[in-house]
Amino acid sequence: MATIFTSWKVHVFGLLTWLIPFLAAFPFYSPDQGLLIPITFFKSIMIVIGSAVGLILLVWLYLDFPKVRASGLIIGLYWLALNWVLDILILLPMSGSDIGTWFTDIGLRYLVLPMMAIAICYTRMRARQS
Fold this sequence. Notes:
The chain is mainly α.
């Protein structure tokens, strides 16, 4: 497990899974009018952006990542926790939302990170066995 966390990519890419969608959300907001598009459309866009960013970063990470069987689960849970902590520290105070509403509206969606990490790790391990 120490090998997993010694890679700078695990930490930087994990941060980027939060930062890129966070920055991508800004054009959809106005200081005067708030959200400029319907909320359901915005949430759909953010799911697509967040999933695409997570997937691309996981693929890049696993291009030269050491062969560690449980790394998908470990990295996925680490990125999940990192995204939750950053949301709670930054997004919650900005939005004025309570933690329960945040979790049902946003927090639960981060579970896609460990699912993708496990799938990519599994696929990589299977490919190396062939």
